Amino acid sequence: MTRRFPLITAHAGSMNFPAHTLRSIEIGIELGADVIEEDIRVTKDGVAVLAHDNEWLTGERLNGNIAEMTYAELKSTGLLRLEDILPIVLASGKIINLDLKVDAAIEPAAALIRKFDLSQQAFFSGCELERAVLAEKRHPDIRRLLNTDVELFKTLPYREAMVQTCADAQAASCFGVNIFHGLLNQEFIEFAAALELPVYAWTVEDEGMMHQYAEWGVHSITTRNVEALVRVKQAFQLQQPTV
């Protein structure tokens, strides 16, 4: 049986370019990523921006607080709006994974998905159970992944944590599970697959591990080293039986 290679998801900061920049997004697209992942936060005046952390270096070289500053106050630092990059994603035909860092990002991100007619090219991640339920309640038409709760795997036996994670994904009507690759094993992937929950693994930089996860059947691999994952894909496809 021919196995499909996982989707290649370009992490923010692809190929050592600064994260949350146009060049990082462009290089991911140019190298052949299927999905572009970006972290989303919201300014004081409700503008969705690309940022992992709430602190951002301002023009005065001081740490600014994104949630407490307007976009106009932050614009000179190079902070990108989500709206700045969505036309690029739309034109490329790629998918965008919007990793929501705060609940407040749900509304502006959803509005932009609709503005650019990206419902078939976008989904939410960054959603543990409460945020996933909130997103489902407010915007049930926008797909979302459940982010695994690492604490479950620290406090429960592995199988119990796995079962609970998949049950939470179903309860929040998530289409799949987003999991730190260090928590992943083949049992998890097979269990989730039986429930029709594709598994998205993050963030994998080692080529051997990329190949292993592909063999196990993950649906997507997130990496900063898109070039390496493309090489693994090419080698993987050569190993598949011809029909």
TrEMBL record:
GO terms for molecular function: phosphoric diester hydrolase activity. Residues 5-233 form the GP-PDE domain. The lineage of its organism: Bacteria, Bacillati, Bacillota, Bacilli, Bacillales. It comes from Paenibacillus albus. This is Glycerophosphodiester phosphodiesterase. PANTHER family: GLYCEROPHOSPHODIESTER PHOSPHODIESTERASE, CYTOPLASMIC, GLYCEROPHOSPHORYL DIESTER PHOSPHODIESTERASE. SUPFAM superfamilies: PLC-like phosphodiesterases (SSF51695). CDD domains: GDPD (cd08556). Pfam families: GDPD. It comes from the Bacteria. GO terms for biological process: lipid metabolic process.
